[in-house]
Amino acid sequence: MNGISVAVSSLTLASSFLSWCGCILIFGTWLFFKDIRSSSRRLLLYLALADFLIALGNASGAIRSLGQSNDTNSSAESQCENPTAFCKAQSFIITFGSMSSFFWTMIIAWQVRETILHAERTGWTERHHWLLHVIAWGIPVIILTVTLSLDMLGYQELPTDNSSNSTISDKSVFGTTGGWCWIKVCQNKTVTPVGEVVTLTLLAGKGWELGAMVVLPLIYCSMKIKLRKTIKQTGSLFIDRETLSAVKKTDRVMTAVPVVFFLLRLAGTLRYLANTIVWIGDIDPPSSFNIFFNKALAIYQAVGDSGQGFGNFIIYCVLTDILRERICTKLGFCKKDMSTKRYHITAPYVDELDDGSDRPTTTENSSDSDSTDMYSSAAGETTPILRDKSSHTYTPTN
User: Fold this and answer.
1) Beta-carbon neighbour count of residue 89 at 10 Å?
2) N or C: lower Cβ tally within 10 Å for the chain?
3) Where is the G-protein coupled receptors family 2 profile domain (predicted)?
4) Are the C-beta atoms of residues 378 and 372 closer than 8 Å to each other?
5) Whole-prediction pTM value?
6) pLDDT averaged over the chain?
7) d(CA 133, CA 49)
């Protein structure tokens, strides 16, 4: 087992551990802070569960890779064509978790968009909550069931290294994998036809990942543009400092979601695209190709692919003031300040703007508020930041 493979496996374990901690803390906020429970937070639980499965699958593969004996080329080829039950199970868990994570990430983005831009339409997701589960859990199960029936879950193998100290995970089509299993890709293309491999790798993960990389920035950019337009049209005369502060915090998180997702997934996507082209075209890449894509980016990918759970904890908990303070207090690191008040931006009916005559409202909440939102410190899910057109009074919302 070479040094890069050891480094990749070790970093995978470390990143998976951080993701487990992040997911457990997300579960803990739901369990211990009952006042924050909302439909948006419930969706976050499902996302955390998917991320937990990813970390579980990657960590199990890394442990196996670190503990396995050295394999010869012949045994590597045999393992690729006839993967073990452990490898198939690990592939199923990782791929299922990854696809579900992509779906829940996009669903949450859409839910937040509807909450902020069209609060009157948020009831649709409550009435059709079952449909979200069909999409996020059902589609991955269907795809993986078909893939398993085709016997295409397993190792990726390309025996470019003839040294006796190379393991199956060192000879992947996509370079060192740290023991991860995914779609079976063997050097013998009669066993794993090119067209079938490309189709399945896109359907079983990469296609949805690339889609999320496009959809997430579009959704969050549209929210940021609309929110800024609303503030500009309303006029500074009717917007107090607390509201502007809440807008900035919301804007910060809306920026963080696609950026963190993109950074965590970038290395794996680049390696997939580059190595797939090399494999399909039977190209003999220069040494610099392997150094960059299959060594440097492999280390980057080891952290990113397993770290989504921790990244989501940072976004949805650490960047949320009240949750950050309450978690800190619950863990005994901070003292509780009961006098702390929060002003926040609530979900706006920005589509109801006409000539800018609407006035923004703010909500005053203590740290024990009954309506903590996913993005702001304590925002109600359907309360408009702009007062109703028929109202001419200026009172705080509840």
Assistant:
1) 14
2) C
3) 8-320
4) yes
5) 0.79
6) 76
7) 13
Tokens 């198939």, residue located: 88
Among 247, 228, 1, 204, smallest CA distance to 100 is for 204
CB contact at 8 A, 157 and 80: yes
Specify whether the CB–CB gap between 363 and 343 falls below 8 A: yes
Residue 182 pairs in a beta bridge with 154
User: Cα separation of 398 and 383, whole Å?
Assistant: 8
Cβ count near 351 (within 10 Å): 12
**Euclidean distance between CA atoms 186 and 171, whole angstroms:** 10
In a domain, 102, yes or no: yes
Alpha-helical regions (H) of the chain = 3-32, 39-67, 73-81, 85-117, 123-127, 129-133, 139-149, 194-201, 207-234, 241-280, 287-291, 297-304, 308-313, 321-330
Residues 169-219 pLDDT 10s: 444 555 555 678 888 877 666 666 788 888 999 999 999 999 999 999 999
Query: In terms of Cα–Cα distance, which of 172, 191, 192, 184 is closest to 88?
Result: 184
> Is residue 80 included in any domain, yes or no?
no
CATH of the domain at 297: 1.20.1070.10
323 confidence band (pLDDT: 50, 70, 90): confident
State the residue range of the domain holding 132: 3-73+93-142+211-325
| Token pair listed for 227 | 């929110």
What is the number of domains present in the chain?
1
365-390 confidence digits (pLDDT tens)? 443 333 335 554 333 333 333 333 33
Six-digit token pair at 115?
A: 């909450």
